[in-house]
Specification:
Elements: H1 2-28, E1 32-36, H2 38-45, H3 61-66, E2 71-77, H4 85-102, E3 107-109, H5 113-121, E4 125-132, H6 141-149, E5 152-156, H7 169-172, H8 189-201, E6 204-206, H9 212-221, E7 226-228, H10 245-253, E8 257-260, H11 264-267, H12 271-280, H13 283-290, H14 296-306, H15 308-312, H16 318-332, E9 337-339, H17 360-368, H18 373-392
Parallel strand pairs: 1-2, 2-4, 3-4, 4-5, 5-6, 6-7, 7-8, 8-9
Length: 394
């Protein structure tokens, strides 16, 4: 009996030491998430980021600190149906500015590597901005410049909807999908001007959501490292939003980084089929939302979020997300992978991740998979700092 009690005590002590080890590493590391949709989600739900939103959203200010998030790139997003998307983008930016204004001791607006380092030193959440969807510049380079001046430091060239100058993954993979203004897939002459102007400004070019032809046009046009702010691996989950091996290699060769999306449908090939069966049970609600000019995919997300208790049982484990990370590391090395959750833009992250407060569990699993502390620090934030610095240099 004494021996059994001793063994149980030793096991408890070992578990306690391991827990302290991963938490110590996590909270002493620099962590950046390159994609969080709370600005648009907060508008839709009529809530404030600096309120207690647990149970209502994946994110709020207090939980950012609970999860050890040092820098958050807030997604400035609207769907292709939005009227005057440039004005809407500025309204969302205003929201982030207001959050910072109300919380000067806890948040800091960041638009340069130097400011990012200052925010980290002062232990403030670095609030950064990324535009999701090139339609928000309304085919006008002066609008791109204006967004840069307001602090936007990456732009996803398309969302699911194509622009006049770039075709999306959704349209390139859908029969009869929209073509660009030159009546073909990929970037137009103006689209290449957009990429070149982003390079000149110091704005990261984001290829998440892009169709393959558009992607390769970016690769042949950009002179700076390329990022995918929230994408996963095609070979592990054959979704149009994921990247094929040659694309992953091209991003790495540019010096860029793939930041992994936490959406269950991008990491587990069985998830969306199961979710769609659930959605079909509530099709009338989806159709009703679509009639308000909301994209079909986004309408499905809204309904799935409403029935999140049912969706919870369909979610894959965190280990499936880490499989995607392992794959990229084996293919191109640990310098080219990071985290871009898509929290508050998705209805179903992995089962263990209910919000930003659960980020330490990723560090725990990376340690369990045998990653060194040095490599974990790269994944959590140092890879981002490198590519952000490289793109900022003019």
């Amino acid at each position: 009996m004494k021996q059994s009690a001793f063994l149980l005590l030793m096991l408890f002590c070992l578990q306690h030491v391991n827990a302290q080890q991963y938490k110590k590493l996590h909270f002493s590391s620099f962590l950046v998430d390159t994609h969080n949709d709370i600005p648009s989600s907060a508008i839709a739900k009529k809530v404030a980021f600096d309120a207690n939103l647990k149970g209502n959203t994946h994110s709020d200010l207090n939980r950012m600190f609970e999860g050890g998030v040092d820098a958050q790139m807030f997604s400035i997003f609207c769907g292709g149906e939005q009227k005057q998307p440039f004005n809407f983008a500025n309204q969302e930016i205003d929201s982030v500015y207001e959050w910072v204004r109300r919380n000067p001791a806890r948040m800091m607006l960041v638009s340069s590597p130097a400011e990012l380092k200052k925010a980290i030193k002062e232990k403030k959440l670095a609030a950064m901005l990324g535009v999701e969807g090139g339609h928000m510049i309304e085919n006008d380079l002066s609008n791109l410049d204006a967004l840069y001046k307001r602090g936007v430091r990456y732009m996803t060239l398309t969302w699911n909807n194509s622009t006049a100058w770039a075709t999306s993954a959704a349209d390139e993979t859908t029969p009869g999908g929209a073509l660009n203004a030159e009546n073909k897939k990929g970037l137009t002459t103006f689209g290449k001007q957009v990429v070149k102007r982003m390079n000149e400004l110091g704005m990261m070019v984001d290829v998440s959501h892009l169709g393959e032809q558009s992607f390769w046009d970016v690769v042949s046009t950009s002179t700076k490292p390329i990022i995918a702010s929230h994408s996963c691996v095609w070979n592990l989950c054959q979704h149009r939003r994921n990247l094929k091996d040659e694309q992953i290699k091209a991003i790495a060769q540019s010096g860029g980084v793939i930041f992994l999306n936490f959406y269950s449908g991008f990491i587990d090939s069985t998830y969306e089929k199961k979710r769609d069966r659930l959605i079909a049970m509530h099709q009338a609600e989806v159709d009703s939302i679509i009639k308000t000019s909301v994209d079909r995919d986004y309408a499905a997300i809204i309904v799935a979020e409403k029935y999140k208790d049912d969706v919870k049982n369909l979610r894959p484990s965190l280990s499936v997300l880490i499989d995607h990370l392992d794959y990229i590391v084996r293919l191109v090395g640990v310098d080219h992978v990071g985290l871009g959750s898509d929290f508050d833009g998705i209805e179903a992250p992995p089962a263990e991740l209910n919000g930003v407060e659960d980020y330490p569990l990723i560090t725990k699993m990376l340690l369990e998979r045998g990653y060194s502390k040095k490599d974990i620090r790269k994944i959590l934030g140092e890879n981002f700092m490198r590519v952000f610095t490289a793109c900022s240099k003019k």
